[in-house]
C-alpha cells in the first residue's frame, strides 16, 4: 500500500475498525468552515496544560455538551468553558452530520457525538502518542477531521511501543477509529510551516467523541 499516492477520495483501512477517509469532509467544507471560523472568533483556542504542568503544544477550543479541558488537575470533560463559566456552544448540524456519516462509512452506525474538540496546530505543534481514554463508552468511535495545513498522523496499536503507520493527512481528510482499534495509540508529527488558503499558517483538527 502506497500511503502517499492518494489524490482522489479513498477509504483505506488502517486497522480493524479504523479507516482513513481521504477527502471525505471536502463537500461540506463551504458550510463547515464559516461555522468553525465563527466559533473560533468567539471562543479562541487556548493553550491548555498537561497534568505535569507544562503547556500543551496545540491550542484548544470545544463545542458540544462536553468540552475537553487539560489543566494541572488532569484531563477531562467539562460542561462549562473555564474561560467564562458558560456552556460550550452546540455542535453545528453540518459537523454532527459529517461525524455520523463518516462513522457509518467506517462501520460504526448511529454515532451521535456530544463533544467536538478543536485543536489548532501552529507550525511546529505536535501531539505525542496517546490513547483517547477519557470517555465513558468505548463502544463509540472517534471521528477526526483535518483542516488546513497537512500533517503526518501516526497511528499505532494497542501498546505505546507498537510502531505507528504514518498517514499524510491533508485538508478535508477524516480518520475514524472504533471497535477493536478504539484505544489504539495515535499522535501527530510536528506540523511544517506553510500557508493554507483557508486556514493560513495552521492546521485545525476536529475530534468528535461521545464523551459521556
Ligand atoms: C488527537 O488525537 O487528539 C488529535 C489528532 C489529530 O490532530 O489529528
Ligand atoms: Fe487523540
Descriptive terms for the model:
212 residues, mainly beta, Jelly Rolls, 8-stranded antiparallel β-sheet, 16 strands, 37% strand, globular, binds succinic acid, binds fe (ii) ion
User: Helix content range of the residues, please?
Assistant: 10-25%
Average residue-wise pLDDT: 95
Predict the CATH topology.
Answer: Jelly Rolls
Query: What composes the largest sheet?
Result: 8 strands, antiparallel
Give the overall shape.
Answer: globular
Tell me the number of strands: 16
Q: Which ligands are bound?
A: succinic acid, fe (ii) ion
Low-confidence stretches: none
SS-derived structural category: mainly beta
CATH superfamily grouping:
Alpha-ketoglutarate-dependent dioxygenase AlkB-like
So, CATH architecture?
Answer: Sandwich
Strand order of the largest sheet: 1-2-14-11-16-9-4-3
CATH class: Mainly Beta
Order of helices and strands: EEHEEEEEEHEEEEEEEE
Which value, in Å, is the CA radius of gyration?
16 Å
CA-to-CA gap between the ends? 37 Å
Number of domains: 1
Can you count the helices? 2
Report the β-strand fraction as a percent range: 35-45%
Please summarize what this structure is:
The protein is mainly β and 212 residues long. It has 2 helices and 16 strands.
Amino acid at each position: 500500500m502506497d500511503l502517499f499516492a492518494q489524490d482522489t477520495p479513498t477509504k483505506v483501512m488502517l486497522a480493524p475498525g479504523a479507516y482513513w477517509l481521504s477527502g471525505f469532509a471536502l463537500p461540506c467544507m463551504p458550510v463547515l468552515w464559516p461555522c468553525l471560523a465563527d466559533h473560533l472568533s468567539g471562543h479562541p483556542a487556548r493553550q491548555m496544560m498537561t497534568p505535569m504542568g507544562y503547556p500543551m503544544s496545540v491550542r484548544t477550543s470545544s463545542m458540544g455538551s462536553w468540552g475537553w479541558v487539560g489543566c494541572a488537575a488532569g484531563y477531562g470533560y467539562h460542561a462549562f468553558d473555564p474561560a467564562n463559566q458558560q456552556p460550550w456552544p452546540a455542535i453545528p448540524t453540518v459537523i454532527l452530520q459529517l461525524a455520523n456519516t463518516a462513522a457509518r462509512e467506517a462501520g460504526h452506525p448511529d454515532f451521535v457525538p456530544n463533544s467536538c474538540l478543536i485543536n489548532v496546530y501552529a507550525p511546529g505543534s505536535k501531539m505525542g502518542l496517546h490513547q483517547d481514554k477519557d470517555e465513558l463508552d468505548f463502544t463509540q468511535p472517534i471521528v477526526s477531521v483535518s483542516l488546513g495545513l497537512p500533517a503526518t498522523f501516526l497511528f499505532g496499536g494497542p501498546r505505546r511501543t507498537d510502531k505507528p503507520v504514518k498517514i499524510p493527512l491533508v485538508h478535508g481528510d477524516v480518520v475514524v477509529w472504533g471497535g477493536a482499534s478504539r484505544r489504539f495509540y495515535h499522535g501527530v508529527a510536528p506540523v511544517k510551516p506553510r500557508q493554507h488558503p483557508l486556514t493560513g499558517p495552521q492546521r485545525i483538527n476536529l475530534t468528535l467523541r461521545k464523551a459521556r
